[in-house]
Task: structure prediction
Amino acid sequence: MAAAKWVPLGRAVGVDLWRSVDQSGNTAEATKRITDLEGVAGRVELHTGDMTALEFPDGTFDVVLSSLAIHNIGSAEGRQHAVEEAARVLRPGGRLVIVDIMHAADYAQRLTSLGLSDVAQRPLGWRYWYGGPWLAARLVTARRPVG
Result:
């Protein structure tokens, strides 16, 4: 919902498997209700899908944001596929933003190997600790080069 508010003239597209094992109450219906409550329903599309095999053409999005999701994929190979898919659907010049509690260095390394530029990572600070500093969220950013 925050992403939709950041682009008042654009649209936000959400993709989820809607598994309550990762987040309680995680359903498309609940998320749709939240879009209504937040006043962004007309600018948000919700899709049921797997982030390791996104059903969008290459270069579809100006910004790709993944927040506390990729770590839920059990295998390193699956997490790499998710990062690759995020980069694939990013348009030239577009920005990729990943917030996650584990594997940030792996994501950054893969994005660099895929040829994305301005790859950076940093901690998000104590407000993003989940139980303590040993499970702290990190921010990974990158840009798809133009041309």
Notes: Strands lie at 12-16, 44-48, 61-67, 90-100, 117-123, 138-143.
